[in-house]
Every structure is written in structure tokens, then in C-alpha cells.
Amino acid sequence: MANEDGISHYLHPQHRLAHVHIEGNFLCDGCKVVGHGVRFRCHACNFDLHEHCARCSSTISVPMHSDHLLTLHVLSQDNPRRCDVCRKTAIGLCYRCVPCGVDIHPLCTLVRPNGGSWVTVGKIVLKVINIAANIAGFPGLDLIADAIER
Ligand SMILES: [Zn+2]
Ligand SMILES: [Zn+2]
Ligand SMILES: [Zn+2]
Ligand SMILES: [Zn+2]
């Protein structure tokens, strides 16, 4: 957990990151997706991470691809993928099932179904969608709902 000394993170090992709330948007230096408000931040370097991106584990199980664990990768700028949940470009932190070609933004792994029938979106299966609107720092979730309902 965060405390006043902040956390250390492998994406920015040279300084600790402070847990701060600053009004306004930021670009997460982990997943390259816009966030808002609460974040982990190195002021000296203008380095920001979503809370989720600072804490997410190296492997996870997700309901939209439940057969396999996804593993956390760091995609370079030259190797962008497309997120199978929101259909937007994924660079930086990205959960992948490499054998299946599934790629999901860390924040998009938090999307959860809420009833409704299962639908296939690209390579993955989703129900449409209950956005957990209280996920701190992620106004982009609205965009995910739009993308999937289209
Ligand atoms: Zn992020
Ligand atoms: Zn720094
Ligand atoms: Zn996504
Ligand atoms: Zn798989």
C-alpha cells in the first residue's frame, strides 16, 4: 500500500512515486491512457501512473478470456497492439495472452459484465457492460462503453 513515502515501481526505479490527487488529466506513463485525479507521481520527472497500473500484478485472470492467464508486458512504441476490449491502440503496459493474440489494457481488464447476453468482440467474449464508474482516474471508461456498444 502507498504511504507518505510513496512506492517504488519498476517502470521508474530511479525515484519513488508519491500517491497524490491533482485535479486534471494526465497521461499514464505505464499504459499511455489518459487518467484523471488520483495517481502515483514523480514530480521531478513528470512521471505519472494510474493507481491500477502502479499496482497491477504480473499475471491475472479475466472474465473476457477466462481460459488462460494473461501476463503483463511492456510494449514498445514500435510494437503497438490493439486492445481487444476498447479497440484502441495499446502501448506500454498491456496484458497479453500471446498464443491467442489477446491484448488488453490494464484498466480494460477491470471492465465487468452485468447481465445481458454474451457477445463476441474481436477475439474475446464480453457481456455488455457494466462500467465500474468509480474506478479512480479513468474517465476513458465511457469511451470503452461506446466502443463496445457500437
Ligand atoms: Zn495506466
Ligand atoms: Zn523521477
Ligand atoms: Zn483498452
Ligand atoms: Zn488465451
Brief sketch in words of this structure:
The protein is mainly beta and 150 residues long. The chain has two helices and eleven strands.
Explain this structure to me?
The protein has two helices and eleven strands, in the order E-E-E-H-E-E-E-E-E-E-E-E-H. It has 150 residues and is mainly beta. The chain has a domain of 93 residues. A hairpin with a 2-residue loop joins strand 4 and strand 5. The chain is elongated and about 40 Å long. The C terminus is likely disordered.
List keywords for this structure.
150 residues, mainly beta, 4-stranded antiparallel β-sheet, 2 helices, 39% strand, binds zinc ion
Kindly provide the radius of gyration, computed on alpha-carbon positions and rounded to a whole number of angstroms.
Answer: 15 Å
Secondary-structure element order, N to C: EEEHEEEEEEEEH
Spatial order of strands in the largest sheet: 4-5-8-9
Distance between the termini: 38 Å
Using the alpha-carbon principal axes, give the shape. elongated
| Fraction of helical residues | under 10%
Bound molecules: zinc ion
Report the uncertain regions: 114-124, 126-150
Main sheet: strands, sense, barrel: 4 strands, antiparallel
| Share of β-strand residues | 35-45%
Number of separate helices: 2
- DSSP summary, beta strand count: 11
**Structural class computed from helices and strand pairing:** mainly beta
The overall pLDDT average reads 77
Give a topology summary:
Layout: E1 18-27, E2 34-42, E3 47-49, H1 51-55, E4 59-62, E5 65-75, E6 81-82, E7 89-90, E8 92-97, E9 102-104, E10 118-121, E11 124-127, H2 141-149
Antiparallel strand pairs: 1-2, 2-3, 4-5, 5-8, 6-7, 8-9, 10-11
The structure holds zinc ion (4 copies).
One zinc ion (ZN) binds near residues 28, 30 and 50.
